[in-house]
UniProtKB/TrEMBL annotation:
Taxon lineage: Eukaryota, Viridiplantae, Streptophyta, Embryophyta, Tracheophyta
Catalytic activity entry: (R)-5-diphosphomevalonate + ATP = isopentenyl diphosphate + ADP + phosphate + CO2
Highest taxon of the lineage: Eukaryota
Residue window of the full protein shown: 5 to 358 of 421
Places the protein is found: Peroxisome
Protein EC: 4.1.1.33
GO biological process: isopentenyl diphosphate biosynthetic process, mevalonate pathway; sterol biosynthetic process
Family membership: Belongs to the diphosphomevalonate decarboxylase family.
Any one GO molecular function term: diphosphomevalonate decarboxylase activity
Keyword Transport tagged: no
Descriptive protein name: Diphosphomevalonate decarboxylase
Class of the enzyme per the UniProt entry, highest EC level: lyase
Role summary: Performs the first committed step in the biosynthesis of isoprene-containing compounds such as sterols and terpenoids.
Main localization category: other
Protein backbone atom coordinates (compact mmCIF):
# COMPACT_ATOMS: atom_id res chain seq x y z
CA UNK A 1 0.00 0.00 0.00
CA UNK A 2 1.09 3.60 -0.59
CA UNK A 3 -0.77 4.90 2.50
CA UNK A 4 1.85 4.55 5.20
CA UNK A 5 3.74 7.31 7.03
CA UNK A 6 6.79 6.72 9.20
CA UNK A 7 7.69 9.42 11.75
CA UNK A 8 10.43 10.29 14.21
CA UNK A 9 10.39 13.14 16.76
CA UNK A 10 13.49 14.52 18.44
CA UNK A 11 14.25 17.38 20.82
CA UNK A 12 17.51 19.31 20.83
CA UNK A 13 18.56 22.10 23.20
CA UNK A 14 20.45 25.13 22.06
CA UNK A 15 24.02 25.84 23.15
CA UNK A 16 25.76 29.00 24.22
CA UNK A 17 29.42 29.52 23.35
CA UNK A 18 31.78 30.55 26.13
CA UNK A 19 34.67 30.72 23.65
CA UNK A 20 33.09 32.09 20.50
CA UNK A 21 33.08 30.92 16.91
CA UNK A 22 33.21 33.96 14.63
CA UNK A 23 34.62 33.76 11.11
CA UNK A 24 34.72 31.04 8.47
CA UNK A 25 37.69 29.91 6.43
CA UNK A 26 35.30 28.07 4.06
CA UNK A 27 31.78 29.41 3.71
CA UNK A 28 30.20 26.48 1.87
CA UNK A 29 31.51 23.73 4.15
CA UNK A 30 31.30 26.03 7.19
CA UNK A 31 34.83 25.63 8.46
CA UNK A 32 35.74 28.06 11.26
CA UNK A 33 38.89 30.13 11.80
CA UNK A 34 39.17 28.94 15.41
CA UNK A 35 38.03 26.26 17.86
CA UNK A 36 35.09 27.13 20.12
CA UNK A 37 33.63 25.81 23.40
CA UNK A 38 30.00 25.90 24.47
CA UNK A 39 27.61 24.77 27.15
CA UNK A 40 24.46 22.99 26.07
CA UNK A 41 21.34 24.20 27.83
CA UNK A 42 18.78 22.19 29.66
CA UNK A 43 16.36 20.82 26.98
CA UNK A 44 13.35 21.91 28.98
CA UNK A 45 13.83 25.60 28.30
CA UNK A 46 15.40 26.59 25.00
CA UNK A 47 14.96 23.81 22.54
CA UNK A 48 13.72 22.77 19.14
CA UNK A 49 11.29 19.89 18.69
CA UNK A 50 11.30 18.40 15.22
CA UNK A 51 9.15 15.69 13.69
CA UNK A 52 10.29 14.20 10.40
CA UNK A 53 8.01 12.00 8.34
CA UNK A 54 8.43 9.92 5.23
CA UNK A 55 5.68 8.55 3.02
CA UNK A 56 5.44 7.37 -0.59
CA UNK A 57 2.55 9.84 -0.99
CA UNK A 58 4.83 12.88 -0.41
CA UNK A 59 5.84 14.34 -3.76
CA UNK A 60 8.57 16.69 -2.53
CA UNK A 61 10.62 17.59 0.57
CA UNK A 62 8.81 20.24 2.64
CA UNK A 63 9.46 21.98 5.94
CA UNK A 64 7.44 24.04 8.42
CA UNK A 65 9.01 26.22 11.12
CA UNK A 66 6.70 27.23 13.98
CA UNK A 67 3.74 26.24 11.83
CA UNK A 68 4.72 28.26 8.76
CA UNK A 69 6.06 26.63 5.63
CA UNK A 70 9.64 27.64 4.80
CA UNK A 71 11.74 26.96 1.74
CA UNK A 72 14.17 24.06 1.79
CA UNK A 73 15.95 25.26 -1.33
CA UNK A 74 18.84 26.89 0.59
CA UNK A 75 22.24 25.29 0.15
CA UNK A 76 22.59 24.51 3.84
CA UNK A 77 19.36 22.52 4.14
CA UNK A 78 20.24 20.76 0.92
CA UNK A 79 23.73 19.84 2.20
CA UNK A 80 22.26 18.31 5.37
CA UNK A 81 19.54 16.41 3.48
CA UNK A 82 22.02 15.11 0.92
CA UNK A 83 24.60 14.04 3.49
CA UNK A 84 21.99 12.17 5.55
CA UNK A 85 20.24 10.61 2.54
CA UNK A 86 23.41 9.16 1.09
CA UNK A 87 24.08 7.40 4.42
CA UNK A 88 20.53 6.05 4.86
CA UNK A 89 20.16 2.38 5.75
CA UNK A 90 17.44 -0.26 5.52
CA UNK A 91 14.39 0.45 7.67
CA UNK A 92 11.78 -2.04 8.74
CA UNK A 93 8.65 -1.54 10.83
CA UNK A 94 7.07 -4.95 11.23
CA UNK A 95 3.95 -3.73 13.01
CA UNK A 96 3.11 -1.32 10.22
CA UNK A 97 4.34 -3.69 7.54
CA UNK A 98 6.79 -1.09 6.21
CA UNK A 99 10.04 -2.02 4.53
CA UNK A 100 12.35 0.63 3.09
CA UNK A 101 15.52 -0.55 1.42
CA UNK A 102 18.65 1.60 1.40
CA UNK A 103 18.26 2.42 -2.29
CA UNK A 104 14.58 3.52 -1.87
CA UNK A 105 15.55 6.65 0.06
CA UNK A 106 16.66 8.41 -3.13
CA UNK A 107 13.08 8.40 -4.37
CA UNK A 108 11.28 9.10 -1.08
CA UNK A 109 10.48 12.60 0.19
CA UNK A 110 10.33 13.92 3.73
CA UNK A 111 8.12 16.40 5.58
CA UNK A 112 9.74 18.24 8.47
CA UNK A 113 7.87 20.15 11.20
CA UNK A 114 9.99 22.11 13.63
CA UNK A 115 9.07 24.25 16.66
CA UNK A 116 11.25 26.53 18.77
CA UNK A 117 10.04 27.25 22.29
CA UNK A 118 11.94 30.58 22.24
CA UNK A 119 12.36 33.57 19.88
CA UNK A 120 13.81 32.58 16.50
CA UNK A 121 16.89 34.45 15.16
CA UNK A 122 17.12 36.82 18.13
CA UNK A 123 20.66 35.91 19.08
CA UNK A 124 19.56 32.93 21.14
CA UNK A 125 21.21 30.44 18.80
CA UNK A 126 17.95 29.12 17.37
CA UNK A 127 19.75 27.82 14.30
CA UNK A 128 22.03 25.71 16.49
CA UNK A 129 19.16 23.79 18.05
CA UNK A 130 17.20 23.73 14.79
CA UNK A 131 19.82 22.28 12.48
CA UNK A 132 21.15 19.84 15.07
CA UNK A 133 17.63 18.55 15.62
CA UNK A 134 16.96 18.30 11.89
CA UNK A 135 20.09 16.23 11.28
CA UNK A 136 19.53 14.04 14.32
CA UNK A 137 15.87 13.28 13.57
CA UNK A 138 16.56 12.58 9.87
CA UNK A 139 19.44 10.30 10.84
CA UNK A 140 17.12 8.34 13.15
CA UNK A 141 14.35 8.15 10.54
CA UNK A 142 16.72 6.93 7.85
CA UNK A 143 18.64 4.57 10.16
CA UNK A 144 21.96 6.29 9.59
CA UNK A 145 24.65 4.42 11.49
CA UNK A 146 27.15 7.19 12.13
CA UNK A 147 28.54 8.29 15.49
CA UNK A 148 27.81 11.71 17.01
CA UNK A 149 31.10 13.12 15.68
CA UNK A 150 30.15 12.36 12.09
CA UNK A 151 26.61 13.68 12.63
CA UNK A 152 28.10 16.85 14.14
CA UNK A 153 30.09 17.39 10.92
CA UNK A 154 26.83 17.14 8.96
CA UNK A 155 24.96 19.51 11.31
CA UNK A 156 27.92 21.90 10.98
CA UNK A 157 27.10 22.27 7.28
CA UNK A 158 23.62 23.47 8.26
CA UNK A 159 24.80 26.01 10.82
CA UNK A 160 28.25 26.08 12.38
CA UNK A 161 27.14 26.30 15.99
CA UNK A 162 24.68 23.42 15.42
CA UNK A 163 27.49 20.87 15.56
CA UNK A 164 27.91 21.62 19.27
CA UNK A 165 24.24 20.86 20.08
CA UNK A 166 24.63 17.13 19.38
CA UNK A 167 25.99 16.66 22.90
CA UNK A 168 24.96 17.82 26.36
CA UNK A 169 27.30 19.42 28.90
CA UNK A 170 30.46 21.18 27.72
CA UNK A 171 31.35 20.77 24.07
CA UNK A 172 34.32 21.73 21.93
CA UNK A 173 34.10 22.28 18.18
CA UNK A 174 37.52 21.45 16.80
CA UNK A 175 38.24 23.63 13.75
CA UNK A 176 40.17 20.82 12.03
CA UNK A 177 42.79 20.95 9.29
CA UNK A 178 41.20 19.01 6.44
CA UNK A 179 40.10 21.09 3.43
CA UNK A 180 36.97 18.97 3.09
CA UNK A 181 36.10 19.40 6.76
CA UNK A 182 36.12 15.74 7.79
CA UNK A 183 37.95 16.62 11.04
CA UNK A 184 35.93 19.76 11.83
CA UNK A 185 33.71 18.06 14.39
CA UNK A 186 32.32 18.54 17.88
CA UNK A 187 33.46 16.52 20.88
CA UNK A 188 32.10 16.40 24.41
CA UNK A 189 34.49 17.79 27.05
CA UNK A 190 32.32 16.97 30.07
CA UNK A 191 28.77 15.73 30.43
CA UNK A 192 25.82 17.63 31.93
CA UNK A 193 26.42 16.16 35.40
CA UNK A 194 30.05 17.30 35.62
CA UNK A 195 29.31 20.87 36.80
CA UNK A 196 25.63 20.99 37.69
CA UNK A 197 25.89 23.81 40.26
CA UNK A 198 25.91 26.31 37.41
CA UNK A 199 22.64 28.09 36.67
CA UNK A 200 22.10 29.93 33.41
CA UNK A 201 19.89 33.00 33.39
CA UNK A 202 18.99 34.62 30.09
CA UNK A 203 17.76 38.19 30.03
CA UNK A 204 15.79 38.66 26.83
CA UNK A 205 16.63 42.29 26.18
CA UNK A 206 14.89 42.19 22.82
CA UNK A 207 13.14 39.37 21.03
CA UNK A 208 13.29 41.18 17.70
CA UNK A 209 15.25 39.55 14.91
CA UNK A 210 18.86 40.68 14.66
CA UNK A 211 19.82 43.18 11.96
CA UNK A 212 23.01 41.55 10.72
CA UNK A 213 22.82 37.79 10.28
CA UNK A 214 25.79 35.84 11.59
CA UNK A 215 26.62 34.75 8.02
CA UNK A 216 26.88 38.32 6.72
CA UNK A 217 28.54 39.55 9.90
CA UNK A 218 31.23 36.87 9.83
CA UNK A 219 31.94 37.43 6.15
CA UNK A 220 32.43 41.17 6.69
CA UNK A 221 34.59 40.59 9.76
CA UNK A 222 36.82 38.07 7.94
CA UNK A 223 37.20 40.50 5.01
CA UNK A 224 37.94 43.65 6.99
CA UNK A 225 39.05 43.05 10.59
CA UNK A 226 42.74 42.82 11.43
CA UNK A 227 41.83 42.16 15.04
CA UNK A 228 40.15 38.89 13.98
CA UNK A 229 43.47 37.54 12.63
CA UNK A 230 45.12 38.26 15.96
CA UNK A 231 42.18 36.76 17.88
CA UNK A 232 42.08 33.54 15.85
CA UNK A 233 45.84 32.92 15.82
CA UNK A 234 47.12 34.32 19.10
CA UNK A 235 44.25 34.56 21.56
CA UNK A 236 41.76 31.73 21.08
CA UNK A 237 44.22 28.78 21.00
CA UNK A 238 45.49 29.72 24.49
CA UNK A 239 42.01 30.45 25.79
CA UNK A 240 40.74 27.07 24.61
CA UNK A 241 43.37 25.29 26.72
CA UNK A 242 42.66 27.50 29.73
CA UNK A 243 38.91 27.02 29.37
CA UNK A 244 39.28 23.24 29.14
CA UNK A 245 41.28 23.31 32.35
CA UNK A 246 38.77 25.61 34.10
CA UNK A 247 35.93 23.26 33.15
CA UNK A 248 37.88 20.17 34.21
CA UNK A 249 38.62 21.71 37.64
CA UNK A 250 35.23 23.43 38.01
CA UNK A 251 37.23 26.61 38.55
CA UNK A 252 34.54 29.28 38.39
CA UNK A 253 36.88 32.28 38.70
CA UNK A 254 38.86 31.27 35.59
CA UNK A 255 35.73 30.14 33.79
CA UNK A 256 34.01 33.50 34.36
CA UNK A 257 37.09 35.51 33.49
CA UNK A 258 37.59 33.66 30.19
CA UNK A 259 33.88 33.68 29.26
CA UNK A 260 33.46 37.45 29.78
CA UNK A 261 36.77 38.30 28.09
CA UNK A 262 35.91 36.18 25.08
CA UNK A 263 32.44 37.65 24.69
CA UNK A 264 33.94 41.13 24.87
CA UNK A 265 36.59 40.29 22.28
CA UNK A 266 33.98 38.86 19.94
CA UNK A 267 32.04 42.15 20.14
CA UNK A 268 35.32 44.02 19.70
CA UNK A 269 35.99 42.25 16.38
CA UNK A 270 32.45 43.17 15.36
CA UNK A 271 33.28 46.80 16.12
CA UNK A 272 36.54 46.36 14.20
CA UNK A 273 34.56 45.31 11.11
CA UNK A 274 34.00 47.79 8.30
CA UNK A 275 31.23 48.96 8.48
CA UNK A 276 31.10 48.22 12.24
CA UNK A 277 28.52 45.75 13.58
CA UNK A 278 26.72 46.48 16.85
CA UNK A 279 24.96 43.54 18.41
CA UNK A 280 24.75 44.82 21.97
CA UNK A 281 22.63 47.80 23.00
CA UNK A 282 22.54 50.14 26.02
CA UNK A 283 20.69 47.57 28.13
CA UNK A 284 23.37 44.96 27.32
CA UNK A 285 26.09 47.43 28.34
CA UNK A 286 24.30 48.22 31.60
CA UNK A 287 24.06 44.51 32.41
CA UNK A 288 27.82 44.13 31.83
CA UNK A 289 28.54 47.03 34.20
CA UNK A 290 26.26 45.66 36.91
CA UNK A 291 27.83 42.19 36.75
CA UNK A 292 31.39 43.57 36.61
CA UNK A 293 30.81 45.81 39.65
CA UNK A 294 29.18 43.01 41.59
CA UNK A 295 31.98 40.55 40.81
CA UNK A 296 34.59 43.09 41.87
CA UNK A 297 32.81 43.94 45.11
CA UNK A 298 32.61 40.24 46.04
CA UNK A 299 36.33 39.78 45.45
CA UNK A 300 35.71 36.66 43.36
CA UNK A 301 33.41 36.24 40.32
CA UNK A 302 29.83 35.24 41.06
CA UNK A 303 28.39 35.52 37.55
CA UNK A 304 29.81 35.27 34.02
CA UNK A 305 28.11 37.02 31.11
CA UNK A 306 28.22 36.34 27.41
CA UNK A 307 26.41 37.84 24.41
CA UNK A 308 25.97 36.30 20.97
CA UNK A 309 24.89 38.04 17.76
CA UNK A 310 22.20 40.05 19.55
CA UNK A 311 21.61 42.17 22.68
CA UNK A 312 20.33 39.35 24.95
CA UNK A 313 22.44 38.60 28.00
CA UNK A 314 23.33 35.04 28.91
CA UNK A 315 24.52 34.96 32.49
CA UNK A 316 26.03 31.95 34.20
CA UNK A 317 25.75 32.02 37.98
CA UNK A 318 28.14 29.93 40.05
CA UNK A 319 25.25 28.32 41.94
CA UNK A 320 21.53 28.53 42.70
CA UNK A 321 21.91 30.97 45.53
CA UNK A 322 23.86 33.40 43.36
CA UNK A 323 21.29 32.97 40.58
CA UNK A 324 18.58 34.03 43.03
CA UNK A 325 20.51 37.18 43.94
CA UNK A 326 21.16 37.84 40.24
CA UNK A 327 17.45 37.76 39.48
CA UNK A 328 16.75 40.15 42.35
CA UNK A 329 19.40 42.52 40.99
CA UNK A 330 17.99 42.31 37.47
CA UNK A 331 14.51 43.05 38.79
CA UNK A 332 15.90 45.94 40.82
CA UNK A 333 17.73 47.57 37.91
CA UNK A 334 15.14 46.64 35.29
CA UNK A 335 11.80 46.62 37.11
CA UNK A 336 9.02 45.08 35.06
CA UNK A 337 6.96 47.85 33.49
CA UNK A 338 4.30 47.61 30.84
CA UNK A 339 6.66 49.01 28.20
CA UNK A 340 9.85 47.36 29.41
CA UNK A 341 11.73 45.26 26.92
CA UNK A 342 13.40 43.02 29.46
CA UNK A 343 12.02 39.65 30.43
CA UNK A 344 14.01 36.88 32.00
CA UNK A 345 14.16 33.27 31.13
CA UNK A 346 15.63 31.12 33.82
CA UNK A 347 17.45 28.10 32.59
CA UNK A 348 18.61 25.15 34.60
CA UNK A 349 16.46 25.48 37.68
CA UNK A 350 12.81 26.29 37.42
CA UNK A 351 12.27 26.70 41.15
CA UNK A 352 14.07 30.03 41.07
CA UNK A 353 11.18 31.40 39.01
CA UNK A 354 8.76 30.96 41.93
O1 LIG B 1 26.29 29.10 13.78
P1 LIG B 1 25.89 30.52 13.54
O2 LIG B 1 26.02 30.92 12.12
O3 LIG B 1 24.52 30.82 14.09
O4 LIG B 1 26.91 31.47 14.34
C1 LIG B 1 26.98 31.52 15.74
C2 LIG B 1 27.89 32.60 16.19
C3 LIG B 1 27.82 32.95 17.67
O5 LIG B 1 26.63 32.53 18.24
C4 LIG B 1 27.93 34.46 17.82
C5 LIG B 1 29.01 32.34 18.41
C6 LIG B 1 28.96 30.87 18.70
O6 LIG B 1 30.04 30.28 18.80
O7 LIG B 1 27.87 30.30 18.84
Amino acid sequence: SQKWVLMVTAQTPTNIAVIKYWGKRDETLILPVNDSISVTLDPEHLCTTTTVAVSPSFDKDRMWLNGKEISLSGGRFQSCLREIRCRAGDVEDEKKGIKIAKKDWEKLHVHIASYNNFPTAAGLASSAAGLACLVFSLAKLMNVKEDHGKLSAIARQGSGSACRSLYGGFVKWIMGKDEKGSDSIAVQLADEKHWDDLVIVIAVVSSRQKETSSTTGMRETVETSMLLQHRAKEVVPKRILQMEEAIRNRDFASFAHLTCADSNQFHAVCLDTCPPIFYMNDTSHRIISIVEKWNRSEGTPQVAYTFDAGPNAVMIARNRKVAGVLLQKLLFYFPPQPDTDLNSYVIGDKSILK
